[in-house]
Specification:
The complex is a heterodimer of chains A (112) and B (115).
Chain A lengths: L5 E2 L2 E5 L4 E6 L4 E9 L5 E8 L4 E4 L2 E6 L4 E6 L8 E9 L6 E3 L3 E6 L1
Parallel strand pairs in A: 2-11
Antiparallel strand pairs in A: 1-3, 3-8, 4-5, 4-9, 6-7, 7-8, 9-10, 9-11
Chain B lengths: L4 E3 L2 E4 L5 E6 L6 E8 L3 E9 L2 E5 L6 E5 L5 E5 L8 E8 L1 E2 L2 E2 L3 E2 L3 E5 L1
Parallel strand pairs in B: 2-13
Antiparallel strand pairs in B: 1-3, 3-8, 4-5, 4-9, 5-6, 7-8, 9-12, 9-13, 10-11
Chain lengths: 112, 115
């Protein structure tokens, strides 16, 4: 079964706008990771944030983690058409190292 | 470094048959995990191997099995295929440092269609 939910399920924005996706999870975690998937292909790792971190940046990506609320958000700034994909959060839960539990995903559509 | 490779990329089987999928991890990565992705259930963990030992197993029936070789390459096998086994099977490899799981890098997947 999946760990939690991602919100929204689908998001449509115009190029240049920012996109924010949220992820909620249910149990305590070691880390949380965000992945991108294009059209049912393999997953591309975007960023990993550990449970003792609150915010992390990588290029146009900004991830926050609130362990008290069991939630994370992914912000993509200045979006591009090439950012069109499904985005998944995945948690490595405490006590289950090496197993990722994925969220339901957010489908992002960036239009010109 | 070459990424995670999976073979075959596409496969069509009929119910009752068995299938073996292969995964070659990134050089130096000793942990290999397998996931199943379907439209209904999403991404679900199958199992993880480290140094030829299964360390973790997901909630799948015994028809799903795997193994890892001394060179860290891994195979997964599904016996007595059912229609519901149609899915994208993803393999991921990672380093284990100081006991912590590092980033999992995924291969392109094997798309299995069971008729």
């Amino acid at each position: 079964s999946q760990q939690g939910e991602e919100d929204p399920q689908a998001l449509s924005i115009q190029e240049g706008e920012n996109a924010t996706m949220n992820c909620s999870y249910k149990t305590s975690i070691n880390n949380l990771q965000w992945y991108r998937q294009n059209s049912g292909r393999g997953l591309v790792h975007l960023i990993l944030i550990r449970s003792n971190e609150r915010e992390k940046h990588s290029g146009r990506l900004r991830v926050t983690l609130d362990t008290s609320k069991k939630s994370s958000s992914l912000l993509i700034t200045a979006s591009r058409a090439a950012d069109t994909a499904s985005y998944f959060c995945a948690t490595e839960n405490t006590g289950t190292a090496s197993k990722l539990t994925f969220g339901t995903g957010t489908r992002l559509q960036v239009t010109l | 470094k070459a990424g995670v490779t999976q073979t075959p990329r596409y496969l069509i089987k009929t119910r009752g048959q068995q299938v073996t999928l292969s995964c070659s991890p990134i050089s130096g990565h000793r942990s290999v995990s397998w996931y199943q992705q379907t439209p209904g259930q999403g991404l679900q963990f199958l199992f993880e191997y480290f140094s030829e030992t299964q360390r973790n197993k997901g909630n799948f029936p015994g028809r799903f099995s795997g193994r890892q070789f001394s060179n860290s390459r891994s195979e997964m096998n599904v016996s007595t295929l059912e229609l519901g086994d149609s899915a994208l099977y993803l393999c991921a490899s990672s380093l284990i440092t100081a006991g912590y799981q590092e980033t999992q890098y995924f291969g392109p997947g094997t798309r299995l269609l069971v008729l």
